[in-house]
């Protein structure tokens, strides 16, 4: 397999000084590493322009090549957008905002004037002293840097490759080991650290003054609209009225005509590196257990999905349904799960671990990073040795012909370590989608570079999501990328393996491992040599994960290795995974409380979402008149709507403790799947409604006349007017065996039902299993843990261990029950809505 060695571009701001930071929180040596992860040998080799280390022979020069015509160039930006010459693309500012002088891909690209307001600064802590043996640099409010043993700081900036020096030795880079103040804050001579409110800056006033900060504008990022002229990775030429071309991987554009045989030149040696051995989330120590922990808290997964939707402006709630379906049925394919688990891993690094499997995963992660560095360093050294040997052989030939000695021939440039390491960091399409999810939704990644690369990728794949692909009949795409599946994305034919798609990710990943390479050939040699020496030295060290969290470069390296380590969609062990899922259901998020709390609200039906959102069907409030019953207690009289007649849909407002009407929605039965409301309309048709605000989008799902509906996460079941159950699958209703009077679905898609004989049944795989007891209504969210309204009007909770039922209070007046997340609700015989607290 030949790994791509793509055209070298200097990504300003991406390549930062210092090849590697130290890694890990415990001492782990390379011998221990072999017990966890192996790498299939260091077999990278030169292709041309250097010596073949295996034979000791000089390889031929890499030469020239023709450019490939791609397309006509795009000539103008879309209306309402502007052109950025740096990124050669079109952007727009949000309504009311104007373009600033800041970089278009920064968080301050657009501004809107606001009334000048002076604000106080907030103290966030005390400045920390840099450890002994380090130097304090004023960057970012104060940072602690360390030179290699025996080296001292030079006059070069601390982030440069030659920040440290020693007599008679090549310069080296410094290493960031800590900060004086927390990230995002600034230090003050009084010894404390402070922050200014968002969109404000520091003034010259004392930090204790109420005028320490000032805000006169609101700053936001610009919206990417489209590339101008040519796609990323292509070359613009004015010929033929503006056209787009590409050079072969590993070559650069020359000054010759784009149509000539010498349009592209391989100006340096070409190297085929050994890609890093990938892995899968469910194949690493502790990965399966932590994934189960995350899944047991559905809100964590849904937050990831909705953050991705918000960033990409996806409003169709079917995206949530598809994503949750993938999570439940093919967890190894879920990019959202990988992002949520990675978020948990970052929290473990910063806040510590609680379990052995958490410690196992962090230990493995640290070793994986160390071996990635070792592989990169070995590849760099081999490439460097190959280049140097080639120079010696070439100079020998020159000496024999011209009798000149020590000729430095610039026709053979030293190997550029950025694309070389980029070949080691071999992302798959699955890995790219996973990295995109994480970098777009997780604040802890704090990587502008990764976020920008992911945003560009999302723009390229979004036209192929389920909505657009369905119109083209591309089922592989519709069921692959639409639900953010991983291996299926490649099968969808979107071209995610193209260099233009992968190059930005490779650039960021390589930049997180090596130092910036710049300057002309004559001065570059010393830099490259220093990089190689740094890489070899650092790769031998044990690692400290928490230290990597201190800088954007370190966080990029964490995400790079996480992507490589988890990108293979390896299925979990079925028996082990089933056991973990069962344990998670028993121990996480179960309903807690001691009594029922009644609300001054009547209802005919009730449904609870996984996020705790509560919906009811009702169009009447409790009457104010009360009568006395035979016991002398006050009772409230109510009116209810006729059976089967649609009622208004209301949603519980936790801030006011009241139920607010949702305009335009009415139903005779309701359920909630994720954040999508399902119901049955006045024509006995099942429908679903979604949207961030009224009016909501309502879509009818044709089928048999419907009487009741139940849902859990992305799984929906329906009963027709004869009590026949149907399951929603692939956009239509599929009939299931049996008869029921009430149905609900757990978050993994297993249905529970109560039939006309008041028997309680639960679905196990493809068959129904009768449970003990009797009831009139059923509700379930977590696997194997359902609730029923007993024939005596009490609410009962199923106990899987004993296969018996436990009463939830002594109130014997329930007619309906609903559960979701960790909440339990009911409706009483008098119509009151009631919550178990």
Overall form? elongated
Radius of gyration: 32 Å
| Count of β-strands | 50
Query: What does the largest sheet look like?
Result: 7 strands, antiparallel
Report the mean per-residue pLDDT as an integer.
74
Strand order of the largest sheet: 41-42-43-44-45-46-47
Give the distance, in angstroms, between the N- and C-terminal Cα atoms.
Answer: 61 Å
* Quaternary class: single chain
* Alpha-beta classification: alpha+beta
Low-pLDDT stretches: 1-42, 398-412, 457-501, 513-525, 621-641
Short description:
The chain has 837 residues and is of the alpha+beta class.
Description:
With 837 residues, this protein is an alpha+beta fold. It contains 17 helices and 50 strands. The chain has a seven-stranded antiparallel sheet with strand order 41-42-43-44-45-46-47, with no helix packed on it. A hairpin with a 5-residue loop joins strand 41 and strand 42 (751-754). Helix 3 packs across helix 4, helix 3 crosses helix 5 and helix 7 crosses helix 13 (499-511). Mean pLDDT is 74; it is low at 1-42, 398-412, 457-501, 513-525 and 621-641.
Key phrases:
837 residues; alpha+beta; 7-stranded antiparallel sheet; 4-stranded antiparallel sheet; 50 strands; elongated; disordered N terminus
List the helices and strands and how they pair.
Blueprint: H1 30-33, E1 45-48, E2 51-52, E3 57-58, E4 64-65, E5 68-72, E6 82-84, E7 89-92, E8 98-99, E9 110-119, E10 122-126, E11 135-137, E12 143-146, E13 152-153, E14 164-165, E15 175-179, E16 186-187, E17 192-195, E18 201-202, E19 213-220, E20 223-227, E21 235-237, E22 243-246, E23 252-253, E24 264-265, E25 270-272, H2 287-295, H3 298-312, H4 318-329, H5 335-351, H6 356-402, H7 417-424, H8 429-441, H9 448-461, H10 466-472, H11 475-480, H12 487-491, H13 499-511, H14 521-539, H15 545-548, H16 552-566, H17 574-587, E26 596-602, E27 605-608, E28 614-617, E29 626-628, E30 634-636, E31 647-653, E32 658-667, E33 670-673, E34 676-680, E35 686-690, E36 697-701, E37 706-712, E38 715-720, E39 725-729, E40 732-735, E41 742-745, E42 751-754, E43 759-764, E44 767-780, E45 786-790, E46 795-799, E47 804-807, E48 814-820, E49 823-828, E50 832-836
Antiparallel strand pairs: 1-25, 2-3, 4-24, 5-22, 6-7, 7-20, 8-9, 9-19, 10-17, 11-12, 12-15, 13-14, 16-17, 18-19, 21-22, 23-24, 26-50, 27-28, 28-31, 29-30, 31-32, 33-34, 34-35, 35-36, 37-38, 38-39, 39-40, 41-42, 42-43, 43-44, 44-45, 45-46, 46-47, 48-49, 49-50
Helix pairs in contact: 2-5, 2-17, 3-4, 3-5, 3-8, 5-8, 6-7, 6-14, 6-16, 7-13, 8-9, 8-16, 9-13
